[in-house]
Amino acid sequence: MYPYASDAVDSLYDAVLRLKTREECYAFFDDLCTIKEIRDMSLRFEGAKMLDEGINYVKISEKIGLSAATISRISRCLNYGAGGYRAAIDRAKDEENEGSADNS
């Protein structure tokens, strides 16, 4: 299903899944990626969350500086992709809702 799938990619993803804290993630991604790569990935995820909230391309571009082409690609992935953005966004929402319910 994923044309880039390999033992090396599996090993990378397994390593990410073993990380337990945000600090461990910072350290791992700092070693693995350039600052630009981390920034680009984080902005794409922010763009996906904003699209999910119904924010339009112009406002997203103005707020976080993504190009219309990048926002369009994120939108395509969010709506027709493998489901990665959707799973991450929905789980974050679920955690927020659980936190709200615990505080009630």
Can you walk me through this structure?
This protein has helices at about 5-20, 20-30, 35-50, 55-65, 70-80, 85-100. The chain is mainly α. The chain has 2 domains: about 1-30, no CATH class; about 40-100. Helix 3 (about 35-50) crosses helix 5 (about 70-80). The longest helix has 19 residues, at about 85-100. The mean pLDDT is about 95.
How would you briefly describe this protein structure?
The chain is mostly helical and 104 residues long.
- First CA to last CA: what distance? 43 Å
- Overall tally of structural domains: 2
Mean pLDDT: 96
Helix fraction by DSSP (H/I, runs of at least 4)? over 70%
The Cα radius of gyration reads 16 Å
Low-confidence stretches: none
Count the DSSP helices. 6
Global outline: globular
Secondary structure category: mainly alpha
* Strand element count: 0
The largest sheet is: none
Strand content: under 5%
> Could you state the order of secondary-structure elements as H and E?
HHHHHH
